[in-house]
């Protein structure tokens, strides 16, 4: 075998990162890029040395393409992924897997019938930071995990994004835009979610664009811009998560796992590496006893990886006959949890989560993204 042929559909901003990383992996080769805007597809092909460009249909018809990387807007994810499956291609899609349960379930059913695989971002789960943290938890450094806390809070993307309206529209907001990173991490650690309860709010019904050619333009806020979610897992653990576009205090990437014998802080789930450290309980306090806790750092590999790592794991997993980590089934369960949280915030009741997912595998020991293995 040799490098697996990849076609990319959608050449927006995120495509630069994918094209750079997939070109750096010996096991993948981007053969064609496609977009509604052919001129933009041509520009990206020339910029990154991709031999062909065209429309989405050109990517699907390319005989050398085995895996399609779907980087279209969320509203188009299901349609484009289904078309790739119908063309006999494996699919890696940016998050979320889709925007509704029925469409996402149909995609997985059609892929299974066609004998092709679906992978779904985020693939930060495969980064050396998260992988090392998960191995530390499974090794028992904090005892039995009990509960987790996650935080993402910011003033909002309208302060810096030239076209931020879609981030406040149906299918987005902090829950569906940033939630996949945090809930994918939690589900990978704790397993399937049983039920969720959430409260949401809006700071304003309209927001203003502050940069770019449309600065000063107002746009509607269609979904909660702050949401707090309490998640109960089938395994008995729980988590409390804050996701906000309304906070004056910028704080994000907070993931804390609290166990019977310590607390572990994980890297930002939107990054591939970062600090991993834990503290042990103080024990019984006596007169004059020091109450400061010592952070114990966990050293780990810090390979320069990024978006595209999930697609690489997919092609290797297909060749090796093993499950890939960031699967379509995981993406579906994460979507189900996020939509359940959205429904809970709208109704004020706890919502059971109907779907479940098999335990999420770790990467094989010694996984080197830059090695040639095929």
From TrEMBL:
- Recorded protein name is 1,5-anhydro-D-fructose reductase
Recall the GO molecular function terms of this protein's record.
1,5-anhydro-D-fructose reductase (1,5-anhydro-D-mannitol-forming) activity; nucleotide binding
InterPro entries for this protein: Gfo/Idh/MocA-like_OxRdtase_N, Gfo/Idh/MocA_oxidrdct_glycsds, GFO_IDH_MocA-like_dom, NAD(P)-bd_dom_sf
What gene, per UniProt, encodes this protein? afr_3
GFO/IDH/MocA-like oxidoreductase domain sequence ranges? 130-264
Tell me which species this is from.
Answer: Microbacterium terrae
Residue stretches making up the Gfo/Idh/MocA-like oxidoreductase N-terminal domain: 5-118
> Could you tell me which SUPFAM superfamilies the record lists for this protein?
Glyceraldehyde-3-phosphate dehydrogenase-like, C-terminal domain, NAD(P)-binding Rossmann-fold domains
**Which Pfam family is one of those matched by this entry?**
GFO_IDH_MocA
Q: What is its EC number?
A: 1.1.1.292
Q: Where are the transmembrane segments?
A: none
